[in-house]
Amino acid sequence: MTMSLPSADEQLKFLTNIQRILDEGSFVATYKFALLLAFADYAILAGQGGPNLETITTLDLSESFINSYWRQAIPYEASQKSGGQYLRMSTGAQPEIFSRIVILRNQFTTITDLRSNTTEWRALKSKVADVIARMPLWRLQVIGRELVCFLYHQNGQGYQGRTIHLLPGVLSNFRQHYDLIRNLVQGAWLRHVRRMNLSTLGERDLDEILFGSERTTWDGLNEILKDNQNGECFYCRRRISGEKGDIDHFIPWSRYSSDLGHNFVLAHATCNRSKSDLLASPRHLANWWRRNMMQAASLTASFDSMRIPHDLNTTNGVARWAYQQAEFCGSALWDGRNTQIPADSTWKLALESQK
Fold first, then answer.
1. In this structure, what DSSP letter does residue 110 have?
2. Residue 53 contacts residue 170 (beta carbons within 8 Å)
3. What average pLDDT is seen over the chain?
4. I want to staple 281 with a disulfide (CB 3.0 to 4.6 A). Which of 142, 161, 199, 335 is the partner?
5. Nearest CA to 306 among 256, 239, 242, 259?
6. Residue ranges per domain, the chain?
């Protein structure tokens, strides 16, 4: 059996769905990151020959899981503190696998020593295989509120057992794009752990200094938007009273990290948190596009007076690109609190109606 290489479009769709998991998936612990890396590692180790490569078990993935957490199961030593503490790997209690590996690292000097103890090694692999089956395996492909089966067959959103039937092309895609996928997953894993450990790591970090990940804010922007929106939340249209409101990137910062005036809207904090990193639905897109077209002169004058960078053509181009990508991969669009809809070509009509 030889793995056939998927078409260029199939490879692009695969990578887009990996990115969707990282952008739109729900992460409590870090198991999903480890599971994606385990699939990538399996694809490399499996080679290109042999029978039934696409039917595997969670036990086949367990060693990669252990390797990922073994590296992390040591105390973090902040330069300003004596000693160290373990970084949080979950919004709740520490993940079961992580806690078990912490114990084993204190018993065994190296992972080689642990492997040499056949009883402990087999017990750990079995435990990890069980946890994979019970937790991240059936949740990994849930993106937003939608089950997107592009990696393996799945029956609903519940326990899947220990056997995995990978879809055709999955192993080839993981092999072909191994380095890119590892970089994407490790970057998202790093950001997730950083968010859960701000008190230990501090709010500024190296990526903010190198890549400008800290978003810029300007004095006066809140007032410009509040006046422009007549004191109402851009999304729910209810009055913003007793609070300043949140300045929201209409095209999320996570999609395109640029601070340009026409991309900003003012929203209730609850609406902003609910929207999070999702693109807004076509009805919101139509309102945003209409605002920028009909009030271009007044917004430009206000941005200039406050020395706020703006470029409407660039902002519009980014918006078209973002919604084209969303349509291509069927991303979830935010329509309101606790309401999401799948992306389709309707976004084009929202722009056409404004001409």
1. S
2. no
3. 86
4. 335
5. 259
6. 8-209, 221-352
